[in-house]
Structure formats: C-alpha cells, structure tokens
Amino acid sequence: MNAPSQNSSDLAPELTEPALWKITLGELDEKMGVKIVEESVDRVVATMPVEGNRQSFGLLHGGASLAAGEAVGSWAAVIHASTLGKTAVGVDVSATHHRSAREGLITITATPIHLGGTLTTHEVLITNDAGQRLCTLRITNLLIRRKH
C-alpha cells in the first residue's frame, strides 16, 4: 500500500526568521571616512578619521561626531527592527561633548538601552585612540512597518 501523497499546501510553512539588515554606508558616511567594524543587534562599532572632519580650530567637528554617532545608533536600531520585520526612524538624539581630538581615529560604539517593539534607545560612545570618551549620545528610534 502506498503512503498518502501530500501536496505542498498540506505541509506546515517553514518558520524562518527575518534576515538581519546589513549596513550600507550613505554618501555623508563615505565622505567622512566611516568604516564598519562590527554589526549585530547587541553592538554596532564603526571608526572615523579625525582628519577631514575638523572644524576651523583644528579640532574634531562636533557636527561630525553627531552625524557619525547618529548614523551608528540608527543602524543599530534598524538591525533590531529587521528582526521584527520593521525598520526604524530617528525621533530624538542628544549628545554631550566631553573632550575633542586633533588627530587619529575615533571609534563609535552603539549599544542598546531599550529594544522594544515600538521604540529603541541606544547609547553611543565616541572614543579616541587612547580609549578616552570624547562624546556620549543617546538616540531613540521609532520602529515602523517597512514600506515596499
């Protein structure tokens, strides 16, 4: 006796997790020399040279710190959102500058404070080559459905 045949509609659908979003640099990120070091839900790390991102007094431009920090924090939020089939949009960012840099490479690290289904909040630390904290950012992102 033959076993009853099953067609594909009788089979339970495979459970698959949404693919994690992979970081793609934007035009400003490329101009600032941002490089991705690590990307995951738990941590996003990037670097950026001070050279080419200085203000008129020869110091790392605060706006460059904010732009890089916001990008890294937003990427971290979008990676989390991708696990839920969503994307993220920034709704708040604030920063405190602790010290500056004249040369070298800065490291920008985003770690989650809160990973919700509607909002995420990340702390973004910017440090110099010696590991000294230059800037601390906090960014909150709203998670929304992806528009196709």
Question: How do the strands and helices of this protein lay out in sequence?
Answer:
Layout: H1 27-32, E1 35-39, E2 44-49, H2 62-82, E3 86-97, E4 105-115, E5 119-127, E6 133-145
Antiparallel strand pairs: 1-2, 2-4, 3-6, 4-5, 5-6
Describe the structure.
The protein has helices spanning 27-32, 62-82, and strands at residues 35-39, 44-49, 86-97, 105-115, 119-127, 133-145. By secondary structure, the chain is an alpha+beta fold. It has a six-stranded antiparallel sheet with strand order 1-2-4-5-6-3. A hairpin with a 5-residue loop joins strand 5 (119-127) and strand 6. The protein is elongated. The protein starts with 26 loop residues before the first helix and ends with a strand. Residues 1-15 have low confidence and may be disordered.
Keywords:
148 residues; single chain; 6-stranded antiparallel beta sheet; alpha+beta; disordered N terminus
Q: Quote the distance from N terminus to C terminus.
A: 49 Å
Residue share in helix: 10-25%
Q: What percent strand?
A: 35-45%
The helix-and-strand class reads alpha+beta
Please write the string of helix (H) and strand (E) elements. Answer: HEEHEEEE
Parts with pLDDT < 50 across at least 5 consecutive residues: 1-15
Query: Cα-atom Rg, whole angstroms?
Result: 20 Å
Shape annotation: elongated
- Strand tally, please? 6
Instruction: State the helix count.
Output: 2
Largest sheet: 6 strands, antiparallel
Give average pLDDT, whole number. 91
Question: Which strands sit side by side, in order, in the main sheet?
Answer: 1-2-4-5-6-3
